[in-house]
């Protein structure tokens, strides 16, 4: 069976007739025979709600509808009005060509619908008073609470869960390709929103909300604002990158490394197969590291922290403006109906209790859910452990591959070992992340189903939390390892740390781990955006649509059947079911993490995020308009738990960037050397200052190089990057005082950076009010107008009652006076007649 309910203007209902649905007079249903002929095995029933039903449900759902009262939204001053008009003229090409029903400065006064006060509302066009989005949400609300014959079951969700019906959804308004004089909302959205040729235009958010509902409208409004805010972040990031390119030739440390006369001999990077090498061979890495590790990156980290705070504050103001424009002020989320799975579990528990003659069960307790909670904890920890194990496996791959490439007979291969290992390891990490993302999404849903949440809202929030934790750990664990752990658990020559007693722990290149962090971050971010967010979103819905079409014909559909023109309800049957906004939000939240968490190592991240989102908006729009069944419109005043996750990511970003600048980059060691140890206050001698000495005769047996004459001369002392005492000191190879000085400054920088940026964020939060001033004034004005409207109505009633009472009093007096005259006039005649009679 397939259930499709729709609210066309013809008021026909299209749903395959099932059983166990007690209509109770709520809806008018008509079974249309013969509609299922083109799709064997699938039938449809159409549901239509009458005007009286719509009015009653609108009152119960407390929907705000426009009244007859219209008022003008005035600008605060003539100067602001002129500036606004000038800006609108300049930005006119960026606005979509969507007709407004009324001017922007004219607004209908809205009020909660009431059947007793219908005369106050604008009912000049009853057919369009409740639009298709509102009608579909009203019908779905009725279907959800209409009881089935099964005990403890409620509505269409139970029927869907038990397979009585296979689907229930509103139909799209029309075809995007139909040629008609009247352009429907769906076709208008396709032309002005879901088209790549209008990528530079603003989104028609009002039309999106009108067609899909407030919840989806808020998502696209948030995505649009996030994309707009990425523009200044991208510009600053490009400037920081260009600054690094412009100053790379003036960077003294990289100049010292690249100097041809530099003859510093470095210790082997691995045991036995690796040889001694000259520091000048890492010239390219040192120059490339300066592009991302320069003083401008510190400024950019502070800027992005403030940018995140500005974005959150801007969104709160935008959200309040949309709430006002969409008549959601004062709207509160009502308690949702219990989910079908929850009712079924309660029913099972009640049956068991009845057998033991215990009182009726009404809900599930924590004791009932305890096994599910324990399963959640164990499986979540297991999945996180799997992520750590895979990261550890990639580490072993890098160590073994590096040793194998060093043994190669090809000089080109040996010269590009670092680049080859870094790039291939990053690609392997990307593939693993893409696979585990799908696995973790399924695991999170399974764990949430085990908990049996009572309502859909609770189910969604629990699912979001689990999915975010797993996918966040999956995406950022390799990056966190490179940023904070690689190169810090190495040991020193002669006493290295080993894994499984044979694999020496990795160490960073001389330019630091920041370059490798940049490579890992860029490949992961760009790969996820290109493969997962774009190719998967385009290909998978089309593939599922094709499979559904083939299955509907049992795999033997003929050419004449395919050539038949399907009706609207048949065409929508082949579309992909709407699975919620969680995947859409999740990919953007992970991207927000890439943009903010490690932005100190990759200033171009906002630029790539901006380019991706420009495509993402149109891609999602096209998917919603052409690839998905029309979702049931849902009211919402905010983006829910996603806002709290965004705030948490923004707070963590400040701390992580502080540690990246302090511990991953060489910013702090350079500053310490310049102001504490440099003889002339410059960076000359910095490279030599950061290198320690090691006597090659102190290598452990079997750990030294097999080719001691690789450089053409015998090496007695090699250098390695660390702050340790030389072998000829009283305490050879012990940590030097320079190490403790640098560590103290690093910790101090983290504390100062974190507190200063947090303070600046709080100042931004305090300076920018959550509610725009003009919106608060308009809300206050509407309250006054509503009071005035109802006072006039009450006064009108009082005047009408007084007039009616006066009219009745006058009528009584006139009637009594007329009756007296009649009696007085009739008495003489009666006397005369009586005389004549006698």
UniProtKB/TrEMBL annotation:
Gene Ontology CC entries for this record: plasma membrane
Sequence intervals crossing the membrane: 219-243, 296-312, 377-399, 419-443, 463-484, 588-611, 645-668
The keyword ATP-binding is assigned to this record: no
Top-rank taxon, per record: Eukaryota
Membrane topology: Multi-pass membrane protein
Subcellular location: Cell membrane; Membrane
Residue span(s) of domain Anoctamin transmembrane: 208-781
Ranges for region Disordered: 810-838
GO molecular function list: intracellularly calcium-gated chloride channel activity; protein dimerization activity
KW Glycoprotein (keyword) present: yes
Pfam families: Anoct_dimer, Anoctamin
Biased composition (Low complexity): 810-819
Domain Anoctamin dimerisation: 42-205
Keywords: Cell membrane, Glycoprotein, Membrane, Transmembrane, Transmembrane helix
Assigned protein family: Belongs to the anoctamin family.
Protein name, per record: Anoctamin
Organism from which the protein derives: Menidia menidia (Atlantic silverside)
Lineage of the organism: Eukaryota, Metazoa, Chordata, Craniata, Vertebrata
């Amino acid at each position: 069976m397939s259930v499709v309910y729709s609210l066309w203007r013809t008021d026909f209902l299209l749903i395959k007739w099932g059983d166990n649905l007690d209509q109770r007079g709520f809806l008018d249903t008509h079974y249309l025979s013969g509609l299922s002929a083109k799709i064997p095995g699938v039938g449809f029933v159409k549901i239509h709600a009458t005007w009286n039903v719509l009015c009653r449900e609108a009152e119960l759902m407390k929907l705000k509808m426009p009244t007859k009262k219209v008022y003008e939204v005035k600008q605060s001053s003539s100067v602001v009005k002129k500036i606004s008009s000038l800006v609108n003229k300049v930005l006119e090409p960026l606005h979509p060509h969507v007709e407004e029903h009324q001017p922007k400065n004219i607004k209908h006064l809205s009020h909660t619908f009431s059947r007793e006060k219908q005369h106050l509302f604008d009912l000049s066009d009853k057919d369009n008073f409740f639009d298709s989005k509102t009608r579909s949400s009203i019908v779905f609300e009725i279907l959800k609470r209409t009881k089935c014959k099964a005990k403890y079951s409620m509505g269409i969700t139970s029927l869907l869960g038990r397979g009585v019906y296979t689907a229930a959804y509103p139909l799209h308004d029309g075809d995007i390709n139909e040629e008609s004089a009247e352009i429907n909302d769906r076709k208008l959205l396709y032309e002005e929103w879901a088209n790549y040729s209008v990528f530079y235009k603003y989104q028609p958010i009002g039309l999106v909300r009108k067609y899909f509902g407030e919840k989806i409208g808020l998502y696209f409004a948030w995505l649009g604002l996030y994309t707009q805010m990425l523009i200044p972040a991208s510009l600053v990031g490009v400037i920081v990158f260009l600054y690094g390119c412009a100053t790379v030739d003036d960077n003294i440390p990289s100049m010292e490394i690249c100097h041809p006369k530099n003859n510093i001999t470095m210790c082997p990077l691995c045991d036995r197969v690796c040889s001694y090498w000259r520091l000048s061979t890492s010239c390219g890495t040192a120059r490339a590291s300066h592009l991302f590790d320069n003083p401008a990156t510190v400024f950019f980290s502070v800027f992005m922290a403030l940018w995140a705070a500005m974005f959150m504050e801007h969104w709160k103001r935008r959200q309040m403006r949309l709430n006002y424009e969409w008549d959601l002020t004062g709207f509160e989320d009502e308690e949702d109906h219990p989910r079908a799975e929850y009712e079924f579990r309660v029913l099972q528990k009640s049956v068991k209790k009845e057998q033991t003659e215990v009182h009726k069960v009404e809900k599930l307790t924590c004791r009932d859910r305890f096994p599910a909670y324990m399963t959640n904890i164990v499986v979540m920890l297991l999945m996180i452990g799997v992520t750590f194990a895979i990261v550890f496996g990639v580490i072993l791959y890098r160590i073994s591959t590096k040793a194998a490439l060093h043994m190669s007979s090809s000089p080109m291969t040996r010269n590009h070992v670092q680049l080859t290992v870094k790039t291939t390891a990053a690609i392997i990490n990307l593939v693993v992340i893409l696979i585990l993302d799908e696995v973790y999404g399924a695991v999170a849903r399974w764990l949430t189903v085990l908990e049996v949440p009572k309502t859909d809202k609770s189910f969604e929030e629990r699912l979001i939390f689990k999915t975010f934790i797993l996918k966040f750990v999956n995406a950022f664990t390799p990056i966190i390892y490179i940023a904070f752990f690689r190169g810090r658990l190495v040991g020193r020559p002669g006493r290295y740390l080993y894994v499984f007693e044979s694999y020496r722990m990795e160490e960073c290149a001389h330019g630091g781990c920041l370059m490798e962090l940049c490579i890992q971050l860029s490949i992961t971010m760009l790969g996820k955006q290109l493969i997962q967010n774009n190719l998967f979103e385009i290909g998978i819905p089309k593939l599922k649509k094709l499979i559904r079409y083939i299955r509907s014909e049992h795999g033997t559909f003929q050419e004449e059947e395919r050539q038949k023109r399907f009706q609207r309800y048949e065409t929508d049957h082949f579309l992909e079911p709407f699975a919620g906004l969680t995947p859409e939000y999740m990919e953007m939240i992970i991207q927000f993490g890439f943009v903010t968490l490690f932005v100190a190592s990759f200033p171009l991240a906002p630029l790539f995020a901006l380019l991706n989102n420009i495509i993402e908006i149109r891609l999602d729009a096209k998917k919603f308009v052409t690839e998905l069944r029309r979702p049931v419109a849902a009211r919402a005043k905010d983006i829910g738990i996603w806002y709290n996750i965004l705030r948490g990511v923004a707070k963590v970003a400040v701390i992580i960037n502080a540690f990246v600048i302090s511990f991953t980059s060489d910013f702090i060691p350079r500053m310490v050397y310049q102001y504490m140890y440099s003889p002339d206050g410059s960076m000359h001698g910095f490279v030599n200052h950061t290198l320690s000495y090691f006597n090659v005769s102190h290598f452990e047996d079997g750990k030294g190089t097999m080719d001691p004459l690789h450089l053409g001369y015998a090496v007695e002392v090699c250098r390695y990057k660390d702050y340790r005492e030389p072998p000829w000191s009283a305490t050879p190879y012990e940590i030097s005082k320079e190490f403790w000085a640098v560590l103290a400054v690093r910790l101090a920088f983290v504390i100062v950076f974190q507190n200063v940026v947090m303070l600046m964020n709080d100042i931004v939060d305090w300076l920018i009010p959550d509610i725009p001033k003009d919106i608060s004034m308009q809300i206050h004005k509407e309250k006054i107008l509503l009071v005035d409207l109802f006072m006039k109505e009450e006064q009108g009633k009082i005047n009408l009652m007084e007039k009616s009472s006066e009219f009745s009093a006058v009528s009584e007096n006139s009637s009594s006076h007329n009756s007296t005259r009649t009696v007085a006039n009739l008495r003489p005649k009666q006397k005369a007649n009586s005389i004549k009679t006698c």
